[in-house]
Amino acid sequence: MVEYLVIGAGPAGLQMGHFLHRAGRDYLIVEAGPEPASFFRTFPRHRVLSTDDNSLFEGVPFARYSKRSFPNADDLVRYLEDFARPLNVRYNTPVSDAGQYNARHVIVATGKKPYLPSVPGVEHAETYATASTDPTEYAGKRVLIIGRGHSAFETADNIASTARVTHTVGRTVQRVVKEGDEFVATIDGTGELRYDRVIVCTGFRRDTTLDAPEAHVLTGDSIKAIRHAARALHRTLEAEHHGVPWPHRRLRNRPDALAATIATRASEIPDGLADVVVTQGQHALLYDEMPTAERNGFVVTSTQVRHYRRNELIAVERRLHRKPLERFFSQQLAVPCIA
Hints:
This protein is an alpha/beta fold. It is built from 6 helices and 20 strands. It has helices spanning about 10-20, 75-85, 150-160, 225-240, 255-265, 320-330, and strands at about 1-5, 25-30, 90, 105-110, 110-115, 125, 140-145, 165-170, 175-180, 180-185, 190-195, 195-200, 205, 215, 250, 275-280, 285-290, 295-300, 305-310, 310-315. The strands form 5 sheets. Strands 15-17-16-18-19-20 form a 6-stranded antiparallel β-sheet. It has a 5-stranded parallel β-sheet with strand order 3-2-1-4-14, covered by helices on one side. The two termini are about 40 Å apart.
C-alpha cells in the first residue's frame, strides 16, 4: 500500500516526487528503465536542447551543468540523475496497469513517444528515432523531411551540408510510394517528387497507455511547463487530501494596485494555469498558478483576465497593460465578487 504512486522518472515524475518527498508523503516513483531521464538519453537525436531553461523547482541551478544557450542533452541527463538521488525511485519496473499497485492516488508522468502521421505509405520511410545522425550517409542524396518542428529542422540542419537536396514539408504531403530504391512523394501544390530517402520528423505525442479516469496526468511541452504543472498538481492534492491551503498573498483591493500586479504577472503565467484574485473588503487575495478550470473572482491567464461571479462569466479584458487593466478593475470592483 502506498499513498502516492508516480509512474515515470522523467522531469515530470521527479519534480512531483520531490514535492511529495519534501511534504513527507508516502510515495513511490516507478520507472521502466534502469535509470532516470530515459527520454533524454535518446532525444533529441543530435543532442542539443532547444532552450537553456531546464531547471526543476528547488534543484540546483542548471547553469552548474552547462552555461550554453543550447545545452547538450547529456548535461540534462546528469542534472536529472543528481535530482533523482534522494527520491524513492524503483527502476526496472515497467507498469502495464496502474491497478497492479495498491495506491490511493496515481500520477501518470510517462512522457512522450514519437508520433507517426496517418499519411499513406509513410510506414516505408525512416523516422526521427531511427534515421542515422551521420551526415556523411546522406552525401549526394535527395532527402525529404516530413515535419516542420524542432526535430525536422534539427535533422535538416545536420544533413544540409552533405545532401544533394533537402526538402522539409508539413501537412502538404499526401502520400509516399516506394519504387525500388526511390521514394515518390505526392505534395499538395507541387505534384510528385522523387527522393532517395524520406525521414518522418513529426514530433511526439503523450503516451496515454496508462491513462485512467481516477489517475492524475502530469505533462507539458517543455521542462518549464512541466515543473509548473507539477507544482500546481501537488498544491491541488495537498489542499484536497491534506488540508494544506493553496499559497497566496495579499494585495490592496484598489484598481491601481491590482493592475500593476496583474500587468507584471500575466507574462509569467505558464500555459494551462491561471492566477486567481479574490477580493475581500479592503484586500484581495492572489492565488498563483491554479488550474484554469477555476471559476471564481478574477481569473488571469497569459492572454486575458476573466471576471466570474458565482461561476458566471461577466466580463473579459484582453489588454494586459496597466492603464487598460486599471480601467477594467475600476469598472469591475463595483460588481460584487464571491469570496
